[in-house]
Amino acid sequence: MDNYPVVLTQTKIEHLFATPLIISELPADIAAEINPRLKELILAREKETPSQKASNNGGWQSDDKITAWGGDETGTVVSAICQMLDQITVHFNRTGTYRGGVAWKINGWANINRKNNSNVAHIHPGSFWSAVYYVATDDDEKSGGVFQAFDPRAGLPLMYCPVLRIGLAGYMTAGNSEIHRPREGQCLIFPSWLSHAVTPYTGEGTRISLAFNFSV
User: How far from the centroid of its chain's Cα atoms is residue 32's Cα?
Assistant: First the structure.
């Protein structure tokens, strides 16, 4: 066994059970137009209504009816996300499969995180897709407040050995988590079953985002 005299050939690697994180953006001119309005609207709502308590650890979270009170600006964000969902969702029926045309049921809310605020790990049960749109962020890479997605493969932690990694591209964080630092005007779309969190924000600014669930 020391010299491995037999060599495997015709090797290919198939990446099974991938988990999508779609990272997209509104056109810069549209984001620049609607984000200041959304920020003003959400900060005013914060003064008028108490925070909901869900995944938020500190900070403020609105009710989940932002599609009713969020104005045309929220409608613009929702419309853009739905257009993307039409491209990435396949509908099965007796006559075959097709893309798009899903009559989504949508609920959404606003989030405000300031210094030392975060969101604990959670999923969005009862939905198919979830999305986050970033109205106001912090460009300081040391200020935290990043989106954190956890490996969903339930059995993997039982097999995990801290001194070993799968030595293939994209697998170095297997059994752990991946992070993404968002920026204003950016939208993240992911399966609602994907456990995710927001790490503690240590900056001095005000981070504002919209979150949505899409179900049928």
Answer: 21
pLDDT tens across 143-188, in order? 999 999 999 987 887 787 878 888 888 888 888 899 999 999 999 9
Which pLDDT belongs to residue 175? 87
**What torsion, rounded to 10 degrees, do the Cα atoms 29, 215, 194, 66 define?**
50
Query: What is the β-pairing status of strands 90-93 and 96-99?
Result: antiparallel
Using only the alpha carbons of the chain, give its radius of gyration.
Answer: 20
Q: Which residue has the higher pLDDT, 31 or 94?
A: 31
Name the DSSP letter for residue 199: P
Number of CB atoms found within 10 A of residue 186's CB: 19
pTM of the predicted protein model: 0.93
Region for residue 44 given its phi and psi (left: phi exceeds 0; alpha: psi -120 to 50; beta: otherwise): alpha
Q: How confident is the model at residue 1 (pLDDT cuts 50, 70, 90)?
A: low
* Two tokens, residue 149: 């997605």
What's the CA gap between 37 and 44, in Å, rounded? 11
Phi first, then psi: what are they for 122, rounded to 5°? -160, 170
**Domains detected in the chain:** 22-92+104-215 (2.60.120.620)
Distance CA 174, CA 171 (A): 5
